[in-house]
Write a structure and sequence with these properties.
Blueprint lengths: L17 E4 L5 H17 L15 H12 L3 E8 L2 E11 L12 E9 L8 H15 L4 E7 L5 H8 L3 E10 L2 E11 L2
Parallel strand pairs: 4-5
Antiparallel strand pairs: 1-2, 2-3, 3-4, 5-7, 6-7
């Protein structure tokens, strides 16, 4: 279990944040973070990204989170509590999904990056992206890619650009309720 410099074993500071490998036992926490994100997006009037329904009831989302856990692709950002820990963010890395054009070099793909909105502004997403970069180096990947929702005001695209990614290919996924605009972003790993 790797912990970041903000906390470690035995730390009881509720502001300390560490990360650890995720397991199947973390799937409910991943789904709860997704549900929290949907609620927040709905409150902001941003329903285009994930709609308005809880993700914890979506069989596709449940299967994806479970597979990431089984494959060892989850990293959980946590903070200690009096009775254990609270999950405040999640990262899922691995192979790119089927709708993503392949590349001719070793890559690591960020399939999910999500933080608890109650912990916004503490740099959790940035620390999880740093962990993705570390994993990419460990796996000898030369490219780190991610995709995100590119609709509305493109705020998520700008977030990844501020984190050092460069916008690459835009794409659209046709869904029953209409087209879903996405953006692939990439970053070189040295």
């Amino acid at each position: 279990m790797q912990r970041n410099p903000d906390g470690g074993p035995g730390h009881q500071d509720s502001g300390a944040i560490y990360h650890r490998a995720g397991t199947e036992a973390d799937v409910p926490a991943v789904l709860a973070l997704l549900d929290g994100a949907v609620r927040w997006l709905v409150e902001q009037g941003r329903t285009g990204q994930w709609g308005t329904e809880p993700q914890s009831t979506n069989p596709r989302r449940i299967a994806m989170a479970t597979q990431w856990a089984r494959d060892g692709d989850l990293v959980m950002a946590c903070t200690p509590t009096a009775d254990g820990e609270r999950v405040v963010g999640v990262l899922a890395v691995g192979a790119a999904r089927s709708y993503v054009p392949p590349v001719n070099e070793p890559e690591l793909y960020v399939n999910l990056l999500l933080t608890d909105r109650r912990w916004a502004g503490r740099g959790i997403g940035g620390r999880l992206l740093d962990e993705a970069r570390r994993i990419a180096v460990e796996r000898r990947a030369t490219l780190l890619r991610v995709d995100c929702y590119a609709g509305g005001d493109r705020a998520l695209v700008r977030y990844y650009e501020r984190a050092g990614f460069t916008a690459a290919e835009p794409f659209t996924i046709n869904q029953p309720d209409g087209p879903w605009p996405g953006q692939i972003l990439s970053q070189r790993i040295r």
